[in-house]
Design brief:
Layout: E1 12-16, E2 22-25, H1 35-41, E3 47-56, E4 60-61, E5 64-66, E6 71-73, E7 80-84, E8 98-100, E9 103-105, E10 108-116
Antiparallel strand pairs: 1-10, 2-8, 3-7, 3-10, 4-9, 5-6, 5-8
Membrane topology: Single-pass type II membrane protein
Domain Fe2OG dioxygenase: 7-117
Protein name: Fe2OG dioxygenase domain-containing protein
Length: 147
């Protein structure tokens, strides 16, 4: 599946201070949520991809962990973690459960970029279209670029 800037929600910057965390969660929208699910996926479909870019790293703590996969990533400025939230059939992947572990010392700043299954032209609000990549660039499921 080719993903282009038209698939992007507005980017989100997050800041974590000491003791702050984001408990385990999924970035995909819960398909059992009825009207809420239909409203959230009406423009662009499910969140297919998450890209988390570390803007500032704490002195200690603040890892991004995937508990069901026993994986964790320590934040380093400029690094990014990218994962698919759905499988090739578009089914939500339970293995993408993740958390922002507590910051122990310092601050963590990160940029969230979410890409939807379909273009989001005309979408607005906090889930509106953003420009996460340059014009004409795209990502493909196997990690190869069309450039």
């Amino acid at each position: 599946a080719d993903l282009t800037p038209s698939h992007s929600e507005a980017a989100q910057v997050v800041r974590y201070l000491p003791s702050q965390q984001y408990r385990p969660h999924f970035d995909w929208f819960d398909p059992t949520a009825g009207k809420s699910y239909r409203r959230k996926t009406a423009a662009g479909g499910q969140r297919a991809v998450t890209c988390l870019v570390y803007l500032a790293a704490p002195e200690r703590g603040g890892r991004t962990s995937f508990p069901t996969l026993s994986l964790g990533f320590a934040p380093r400025v400029g690094d990014a973690v990218l994962w698919w939230n759905v499988d090739e059939a578009g089914v939500e992947d339970a293995g993408t459960l993740h958390a922002g572990d507590p910051v122990l010392c310092g601050e963590k700043w990160a940029l969230n970029i979410w890409l939807r299954q379909r273009p989001r032209r005309g979408a607005g609000g906090s889930e509106g279209a953003g420009q996460g990549k340059g014009a004409g660039e795209s990502c493909t499921r196997n990690g190869e670029s069309d450039d």
